[in-house]
Queue: 4 jobs
Job 1
Amino acid sequence: MLDSKIPAGPLEEKWTYYKGHCKLVNPANKRKLEIIVVGTGLAGASAAASLGELGYKVKAFCFQDSPRRAHSIAAQGGINAAKNYQNDGDSVFRLFYDTIKGGDYRAREGNVHRLAEVSVNIIDQCVAQGVPFAREYGGLLNNRSFGGTQVKRTFYAAGQTGQQLLIGAYQALERQEALGNVQVYSRHEMLEVVIIDGKARGIIARNLVTGKLERHFGHAVLLCSGGYGNVFYLSTNAMGSNVTAAWKAHKQGAYFGNPCFTQIHPTCIPVSGDHQSKLTLMSESLRNDGRIWVPKQKNDPRKPNDIPEEERDYYLERRYPAFGNLVPRDVASRAAKERCDAGYGVGTTKQAVYLDFRFNLINKYGRAEANKLGIHNPDEATLVRLGKEVVKEEYGNLFDMYEKITGENPYEVPMRIYPAVHYTMGGLWVDYELMTTVKGLYALGEANFSDHGANRLGASALMQGLADGYFVIPYTIGNYLADDIATKPIPTNHEAFEAAEKAVSDRINTLMSIKGKQSVESFHKRLGKIMWEKCGMARNAQGLQEAIQEIRALRKEFWSDVRIPGEIAEMNPELDKAGRVADFIELGELMCLDALNRNESCGGHFREESQTEEGEAKRDDSQYMYAAAWEFKGESNWELHKENLEFEVAKPTQRSYK
Amino acid sequence: MEHYTMNLTLKVWRQKNATSQGSFETYQVRNISSEMSFLEMFDVLNEELIHEGKEPIAFDHDCREGICGMCSMYINGRPHGPWEANTTCQLHMRAFKDGDTIVVEPWRANAFPVIKDLTVDRSAFDRIIQAGGYISVNTGSPVDANAIPVEKEKADMAFAAAACIGCGACVAACKNSSALLFVSAKVSHLALLPQGAPERRTRALNMVAQMDKEGFGSCTNTGACEAVCPKEISITNIARLNSEFTLAGLLSSNK
């Protein structure tokens, strides 16, 4: 039976109660306890630094050349917190409620409320670390809006919020390394969890420079290894982002929660050709000031600026007047797909819509600046000039990035955007304490099945990563390790380490000995195509069944015909990638299985069989009000466990943003 | 943008590992789209090499959107290639024309030893941060984020300095392989904020000491670092570091 270990009591008192009653480890004993952290993004770096500060002996691993490069760094728009600095009606309850509703009632109330509670501490902590958030002229912090909310609660640092937050966590981590509390292993990849007497007790890691396998002991293991969006090949994830750490844990007994819950982000730069290696996000924050539209006429050959106002269809404002351009991501993505499928798409591929800043650049910013300067009858050129300055300050780096990639100037012509895979709400199933179904094995941040249900709201990923690392795990891990203070470090010549290393080594040898004809990349692309077409923005039973068969065939082909050049005992990026793609193939099958099982639409999971008359996602609460937790039983074989979700405070309704 | 394809000659530095002797190899690549990124052009070349049974070229890259700081190619004598304020991953092939020859090398600096081909070891930067590139505050209950107002101008300057992605282009561009732009960006970011003020003196002294220990060269104010910096970190940060460092030295009690 799955036990989510939600503390008893009223929703708003659960976390306080937990903190007041969980077991503690005294400072002298903390020094005897070792913790392994895999991944150094916001969740991993904040956890490793905070646990080091508490006195635990921490080892942190990342595959990049420095912990500062983890993919959290690419997050653009911001981080939510229920500070209510804007006096616009925000509160912990509102943030909780927006998150539950945004996730289409498929997340746990207890976890989400805790997330909303600690959100305010995160901002205080980050400011104390020197994170340079955007400020008003009075010296206080500034906020912007994000999708799925009607308040301004998003803190930001231009379009580089993730970078600034990660640098804050990284600096805290480096400080602990200097103090000797944390040892960082960069260019290392975790390839196996070592389990002894039913508890996670270490990992096997590969040194990516020498190719050597290493054994590392830990009283507990934290997986902070991010999401698996790269299963689609094309996504906004970094090239190295992978599921391997989580997948190894899954195969060792950790259940995988809601694998099919994928977030397709509405505003990304469209695909330009077959050479495409990744997709680039244009922050959701742009929807504060950008208006999305397509021409009212199909296949309109005119340039966007030549299409008059009355011939434009601002379809989000038309369909969702209450939230307009700031509907949640899943809603915005499907609406874009609907327009393009109906033949109204723009650009050479017709798989794009416009994101246009001109209106707000002139009317919102241009006029405000003109007023400040006392210009009472400004002409349009003046408004454009003044507005541009403000837009540049808000989004300058995003506009520059857009221009470098497309060669077009978004200050002059509307951006062309299209949805792309961005985030995975699914991940390792964890209880309230963030522990997986394997004792002593935790999952934090995007790596767990998280607090976002079936759809994550913008600016909430950074919030969750830092909440888990700074403010949740330091308490919950103590509750586990308090019973482990007498456990001496287990020598790594223990038979379980021997066996785990041998399994890893055998698999690498097998991969290298295939010596087939097709590159790793070509397999990854083919997997991505299957996933995007049949397990992407819209899914149906027939497509998913076909996808499962295709993926199985692809796996066979991979293991008999992949070509990996080079040697094992050296830096070999193709070998690193081969291991990751092999895991993605297996995960892809489970995602399709989960999507097939969930015969309802909710959040980002859209089953064509289950929609309202207006084409909105239609949940089936009587059948599917549960988190799906899949247990690995062997090749292509999983058992479904259900964690029923109970909503005592936020009563489920048909989500409406109209 | 007008789309075109091109054929190119690439001269790429190949080096098996840190201890072996490296050399340039010449490759021909065909039908490269002007819409590709520079790294996608390398992907195409690597796929061909794998197909021919040869070893692909090792290079660092990750986010491919100009923010992680991992990519690091020295292209035609300039870190990150010909465009201003740009990283290699954001360089697109419309910067080149049919028939061009492009020379690609790794970052060259004693403090950044080559690991393989175009991949170098930049862990010296992490050790410089460990020497003091942080504010000593534990996770806990600091004051409310709005308790200490920060002058917007200073906050903006701190942000501009904090935008450094730690790629090392500044070091690669410098004839002395100085890391002063990197160090000064971190010192400025933290010194400009009230939260960073208590440690500003020890921070400047310790980070500079670590920089020297790692074998980076001295700064002679040529400004090559600023010219190639993908995030346009200003050399006025170096001036600020110099004054922080001098003042810290003068006020230091343990001379």
Job 2
Amino acid sequence: MIQAENLSKKYGNQQVLNIANLQIKKGQSLGLVGNNGAGKTTFFNLILDLIKPTTGSVKINNIQVNTSEDWKPLTAAFIDESFLIGYLTPEEYFYFIGELRGQNKSDIDAFLTQFKDIFNDEILNKKKYLRDLSKGNQKKVGIIGALIGNPEVIILDEPFANLDPTTQIRLKKMLKKLVKDKDKTVLISSHDLLHVTEVSDRIVVLEKGKIVKDLQTSPETLKELEQHFTTG
Amino acid sequence: MFKKFISLEWKQFFRSSSFAKNIFIKIFMAIGILTLFMYAISIGIGLYFGVKEIFPDKDPFILVNKYILFYFVAELLMRYSIQKMPVLQIKPLLILPINKKTVVKYGLAKSLLTVFNFIPLFILLPFSIILMLKGYSASQIIPWFIDLYAISISLHFLTFLINKSDTFFYTTLIILLSFIGLEYFHIFKISAFAGSVFLALSKNPIFALIPIVLAFIAYRSAYLFQLKHLNLDQINSQNKEVKTADLSWLNRFGKVAPFLKNDIKLIWRNKRAKQTIIASLVFLFYALYFLNMSKHMKGDGMIAFAMVFVTGGFAMTFGQLVPSWDSEYYTLLMSQNIKYKTYLESKWYLMSAAVIVSFLLATPYIYFGWKIYALLVAGALFNLGINSHLVLLGGLFNRQPIKLNEKAKAFGNTQGFNMTNFLIAFPKILLPILLFAIPNAIWGFKAGILTLAGVSVIGILLKNYFLNKLEKLYIKNKYKTIASFKEGA
């Protein structure tokens, strides 16, 4: 579903990402881990064609992202708060995304009912603009927004950060359900090794822009990762 | 403590990441402000002689007294719409052992350093000096000068009390307009009444104290108001309930509808964007100035230029900041299921709608004769067919992010202002003049109108072609735009 070939990004002399080859199959859920500055967000930004690759290219469904816009209908993402429109209410934001993805108001209303426990009565019908919500609640809106319209590829940058423990657990449950059906390709980056190993069936470790580990998730994976980051 | 605050602000100014980038603009603005002061001083010097020249039989001092009320109401409106309480970075200060009173006093003291306090000073002072040189007694003029300046300072502090009330703004505006109306149609001479009041101030030493007391009361109330509101609850407007409006009637516009709905909310809910509406209303009256001023110049290129502005206010003020309006969430738009062209097209529709609305509102220009009205029509067509595309082309070079929820400061803030904007403005100004004035000079008025309208209609017909070209250029600039929006955020 996603192919990165010979992909690199340099700022000045500093190489921030260098991936020789990475293939992500349809239906796979991939967890991206790595310390600060490892290149996780850079990689996501390259997939979404928000920055220009120094070399190489990314293809989604065999569409090269920086030459065609046809990958956009398949793909949804939440990277940071610049994916939110501050002067809209959460409902209006969902409707807006819905309209872009061919969903009408009632589709969205029906879609939103399944996230009632994640929203925890703090999001909908509050008559507040997104910019006036707390950071955690903004994040919830962004993540749910990225699920609208049944996208085939979902990219979430640090979805667990800034969320309260209850929501982290509920979000994890929801993501697990999402990847179980194996029809969506999900990319998640996280600093929380426990959460990310539970949700993903493949873990890629980035270090200074390079892939240093590529593991199929198994009961031993968490231990191995902890070992890696303790000695690393 | 004040010293420390000043040193903090010094650092904030010189260490801001945009400092080096903006130094050119800052110099440019400093020159602009100096020019403004020069104008004010020359008005102050010229006022006496100007009045003498136009009304040789009237006493300039009495005449100025009569009309100064209008000036003050206008000043209040100006101050309200542009002046801003200088924001100290109060969040880190609130928890430090600094007296709240000191913070507020510093804020108010700093606020005095606005252009608005210098302009009346630079007008009044030379005028008063000339009055005294011309034989008015100093014992009359000096208290008068102090009083008028005290009124101006009262208005300064009053702005902070009313800063959040739109009702106040519109009420004052209506009062000003009705004053002018009453005066103009000779129903009630408010000027005569106001004139005697201001004259009384200068004659009776007890009356003379009133404005000074007023200024002090205004300062005190502003101080107490700010002190009461100096906590974080007031900084965040979290508790306000939001009103939503149903805009689904816009759905008939198809693919561009979601963007149109968004842009309307953008304009309605953000201070910075709302100002463009006010600006475009002001532009509606722009041509009146030229029409009144130059009776002998009628049919000239300048009038054509002015008539283009009448319907083009919104397209220029809003349009020149596309795509900066969307800078806060530009990455979302770039990764969503959107064709760039649809995005640009929605902006085109929005500007066109504004041109048509302005055109309808400008119908009264028909009063000036069919020639002016023909120019209005041609100007509107120009805005639809040429200007809208030029404005979008200008946006290509505009990578200044906008913080939506902040009012544009009159002179301190450079958000959304850059040199390329300035350069791209030239064709917008020159084209209508050239398209109209040259054929007009050679073949007469009809030829001028037909050329201007004809070229514009071709522009409308080529809309898709232009938008396709623009789309390519915008996509080419995509990474740069994203990067600079991010940097400024």
Job 3
Amino acid sequence: MKVTFPHMGNMAIVVKALLKELNIEFIPPPPITKRTLSLGVQHAPESACLPLKMNIGNFLEAAEKGADTVLMAGGIGPCRFGYYNQVQREILNDLGVNLNMIVLEPPDNHIGELLKRLRALTGSNSWWRLVKAIRFAFAKCEALDDLEKAASRIRCRELQRGDVDRVYAQACEAIDQTTTPKEIEQCRDEFLTKMRSLPLDHQKRPIRIGIVGEIYTLLEPSSNGFMEKNLGRLGAEVSRSIYLSEWVNEHLLKGLLPVKGHKLTRKRAQPYLSCMVGGHGQESIGATIEYAQQGYDGVIQVGPLTCMPEIVAQSIMPNVEKDFHIPVLTIYVDEQTGEAGLLTRLEAFVDMLERRKRNQVESGMQG
Amino acid sequence: MVKDLLYLGVDVGSVSTNLVLIDKWGDVKEALYLRTQGRPLETIQRGLAKLAERYDDHQIGGVGTTGSARTLASVVLGADVVKNEITAHAVAASRLVPGVRTILEIGGQDSKLILLKDGVVSDFSMNTVCAAGTGSFLDQQAARLQISIEEFGELAVKANHAVRIAGRCSVFAESDMIHKQQMGHSLEDIVAGLCEALVRNFLNNLGKGKKLEAPIVFQGGVAANVGMRQAFEKALGHEIFIPEHHKVMGAVGSALLAQETVNRAGGLTQFKGFSMSEEKIAANSWECGDCPNLCEVIEIQEAGQLLARWGDRCGKWENALAVARSEAASEAQLQTAGQ
């Protein structure tokens, strides 16, 4: 059995750690490139959303390298993601690419259900070994999140363009190489220090932007036109409403671990959107409110084109904008998204927030 | 006597390249409206050459670029500020029409809606994947009906009652128009119907959930079309202002931004001079084959010397240039230190 999996941000490093701990052979898909996307676009239904297309591209490229089994997450609820693994299996079958699919769906009631599904994968490994492996992989996940958060925070302060991204890429590489929990911690601390000791503009008071929206387009930089990097280079401090460890814990581990969840976020969305609409629709609303309350200057909502939960959230956003005085820019991405147009919008948004802030500061000084 | 400084604003868009000179009070002294025709570099140089006939290098106090080819233009000209079209349009409109709250802008291939509050952009939207309702489409339809684009607007004003045309998609709009023609509707009514359909499309696409308040300004090439103006007035129920220089507002805005930037930075411009109009500037591009991303790297050379490179995702080529530049700079420093 040679296991592969879809890319989603830094998830590959985490899944690799899990599989390695369990002595399962794996073949990670090559990094997402234009070829990945065009393979996906070629074989996916045209109206399906971007994540499906990118997943199919990943699987096809991994199959070329000899993978025979796919490990991916499933879902329940109104979002289409829930049946993507079935659709993908059919598409791959039609293409004559036979990949065995192991789907990790969120357990309905109890973590035991997830463990049962994992059993198909783990074979003769003991439960204890499996729990240990999950814990080890999760530690990597948290370390990567810490590094990513730091990078998005300080990128706007770098004096030499590209410094932060270079150190961040080194850090991901180093985390990938670690073999013990202790090493993970040391590695994370080492690179956090390294990032902070880069030549930075510490005087800068940048605008702060929160990114909310659909999980895949939030987490996978190649799907959102490297939004965090671009915003950082335009001079904005960036935070994201969902990070990988939070999603894994909430979605797969049923909130078993003591990681910040989104229960409260969903509760904040209640006055505007009281029921679950699938995906991260409620979280997008709630997180926008949270960012406004934390004094952020603006929010960007991102989702794949035709994403139903985000469309629902988008139609509610004008009310949130008005009630909490926070500008929201909605960006949908798909394979047609031109980089120049996206950059123009981001630049205009950053400009708008900067001028607004300058005016507020000036009128504050007068008053 | 030393002449007052002028500020150059350049807006290089898909359809037109506009060059504007403003004085320090923001009055437009010179406005050039050139067709880009897919050759931004040559068009910029053509514009510069025209200006060079009447102005000197030392009269230029600052340069700003905007439009989809703003980076390219900035490298060639030595711009002091490079800004997106939305900011540029907003800056120009709020200078020329004080107190403006809403800007409708329709250009060759894109349309924008910008809302302002207290002179600052508070919200904006831009058409995304669809060019229905932009200048190019009107151009096309005018050509199909064999009337000039100027006449087009006037025809619409003469209409008795505008027919209803599907404006959601330019392909469907065209077939709908043909259908209405075959049915025997008058040309005036069809043209007016088209204007209304485009306005409806604009407001549905860009204005959804937004409150459009007066004063409203309409700019961009399409603002010259009286039919479109009338349709907007009908739909919004407000009078619509069309600034005198509505065609070149982006360039005016970037000139104003250049003035602001240069003044804040201490008064020195990076303008390379009008002689750039005669320099041999070459733009190259190639596909980098080092990974399956196959990025198209763009390279600008001036007289055989590398000016800039961009387009690569990983930053390898961009960085290679930065490294070469800083090495050259430190060498120059060493040399002056040696003397």
Job 4
Amino acid sequence: MKKLNLTATVLTVAAVGLCLVLGVFCGINTTLLMSRIVIMALFALSLNIQTGYAGLGNLGHALYFGLGSYGVLIFVSKFGQPLYLAIPATILILTLVSAAVGFLMLQSDDKMSFLFLSFGVCLLVYTAFAKWAWVGNKTGLTFNVRPQALNDPRNCFMLILLVTAVCAALMYLLTKTPFTAALKGSRENETRMVFLGVNIKRLRLVAYVISSFFGVIAGVLYAIMNNGAYITSIDTSMALEAMMMCLIGGGATFLGPVLGAVIVTLVRNFLPTVTNLDSVIFGVMVILCCYFLPDGITAPNGRPAALVRRVAGRLRKSGSDSEKVR
Amino acid sequence: MNLSTYVVPLITGVASGLILYLSAAGMNLMISGLGVINFGQGAFFVLGAGVCLIVGKATGSLLQGMAAGTLVTFFLGGLLELSLRPVVGKKMELTLMITMGIAYILDDIFEIVWGSSVQTLAIPVWLRGLVTVGSFQIPKYYLFIIGAALLIGLAFWIVFEKTRLGMRFRAIISNRDMVEALGVNVHLSYMMMFMIGIALSGFAGALNLPISGFTATGAMGAFGAIVPILVIGGLGNIQGTLPSAVFIGVLSAVAALFLPKLYNLVPTVVMVLVIMIKPQGLFTRKER
């Protein structure tokens, strides 16, 4: 177990380093793409608290991503507040909103109705925003929200990477708490957790609020990166993609959604430039992934993980062999 | 005279509610039978309309188009069941993802085959015009929709409640493992469930074609329209879908009169309200 953790740590550090190199030294377009990928990774990680640890499928997580973007833009451009006030205000208000919305959505114990409700609420807000002239209908809002120093995309990228790393670290610490253990218990055996005296509804509500909180942060970062809030951030297809990231990457490991985010973002941004069959390819990819990697790419008992373990084992073996020779 | 401004929207509301009822009932059949959330239900709705458009234009007959749309989706339903067979019963998310993948694939196919412009099929001559009932003038086609949807709904109900196949469906819904253990060929029943469930959506799409036309990107919207009906009627509660669909249809029509800007938010708002009052669905009977 510890050895695998070592591999994971090495891989994480290498991935962050690679991100930094790609984002800072490889031209503007790569920087922008990397910013998007990192934001999506944060977004997928936040959703994974629900889909992975709590076992609650959510098809409307884009709600908080989109509202986070819109919140910053509204505070800055409509109310004339400075950015450093707009961000905490947005996060605070939306976290409170998520507590109320989550309370409503968790009224029914049924996981399926939670899924449908999350989808419905997201679609509701999308429809409302698409028709609301005050928030710019279908074009969304654009306004120069970021301070001078962040106008260089590379600085902006570094900020995004930093915030994401801090949030990811917080979420990682969260997975080590008894709270997450209880959450996993409620996913695996709800009845038993009730017998143990756990208030499942409250547990899930807390998970929902935490997840939304980080989702809002991802949205805020997206607003800063783009200097705008767009209707596509709140779209249900965005929410579906986030769900795909979690499921393709695998919710069982902490960094699974990150890998999923990288794959999905690359596919969704790169393929349309090459072919107009991009959705077909994406759909086929998703279906194949379901058949052959049902628990996601990073599942501890899946084929890719076995491969990594074998390679790591061989490396270690050859390492110790050479030590013996020496 | 003043009354007819209310009656006619009411009829159209019932008609559009019934169209969505067909699709939602099909989806509910799959949910309650197999626990499969078919995310592609909206895409099959659009596919039914698309096939109806092509065949209807080629033959000049709307009815033949509808039959073709229903048949194509019927057989695709069988294929969908086959493709889901390895993952059914394992994890709900997997079936959801596969159907999503299919929806993505269909989305592109619509764009390529039918183009991105809105296309529509003319209503045949014998269904054009208005019928005068008392002092009201009602478009014939809406009456046709109501008649056809109710007929299909009735047939569905008869199959479900009165035939051997329906008995199997009900048995599967109440206890899938037991039915399998008794030696019934459940896979055949599953396949029939999918074929019927998806053909209902295809037929609904074809019925809807002369009203709203064919839009290549309409799948998500169609799915979004089904969701409130399903939740309000109660997930896995087949009897609840019809009242909930009519309720939502009428409510939307009334809302369109008074709140012309906000009427398509109404179903979702009602859905949230219903969940607050009765989380298991408005039209669910108490379990005995």
